[in-house]
Amino acid sequence: MIVNDPIADMLTRIRNAQIAKHDAVVVPASNTKKAIAKILLDEGYVKNVEFINDGPQGSIKITLKYVDGKNQPVIGGLRRISKPGLRIYAQSSELPQVLGGLGIAIISTSKGVMTSRQARKENVGGEVLAYIW
Q1: Angle (CA) 93 120 89, round 5°
Q2: By CB count within 10 A, which of 13, 18, 79, 86 is most buried?
Q3: pLDDT (tens digit per residue) in 10-54
Q4: Separation CA 51–CA 20 (nearest Å)
Q5: How wide is the angle at C-alpha 120 spanned by C-alphas 78 and 84, nearest 5°?
């Protein structure tokens, strides 16, 4: 299957898996998706990220995290910001804050994919990929 926007596809698969209360979701791998999955793990939005080498591309198995007892997903929302038809860029001084700092913005910079918080510390701007809250 050909996907025009692989990052939006990854976010949609995560969103749909959470709505269906699945334990994990498997997405095709790429370096950008691996970096986004690692950020989600580091920020505590998912339980585990496992990289599977099954063929030339590989896959990423993301184990979803739910609030104990309530079966509510930890990720309240995911939104793709910069799309193939309209790229959104921000300088280091203009990096967005999601929900007043309660969420994260994922930024693709010249130093790699990172959160807006890390990009502010390193004083770099870049393409705003997604908001997670």
Answers
A1: 55
A2: 18
A3: 999 999 999 999 999 999 999 999 999 999 999 999 999 999 998
A4: 23
A5: 45
**For the residues of the chain, what is the DSSP string, one character each?**
---S-HHHHHHHHHHHHHHTT-SEEEEE--HHHHHHHHHHHHTTSEEEEEEE--SSS-EEEEEE-EETTTTEES---EEE-SBTTB--EE-GGG---SGGGTSEEEEEETTEEEEHHHHHHHT--EEEEEEE-
Q: How far is CA 50 from its chain centroid?
A: 15
Written as six digits, the tokens of 51 are: 């990289």
Which distant-in-sequence residues (6+ apart) come within 8 Å of 35 by Cβ?
112, 113
Instruction: Say how far apart CA 95 and CA 125 lie, in whole Å.
Output: 7
How far apart CA 6 and CA 127 sit, in angstroms, is: 15
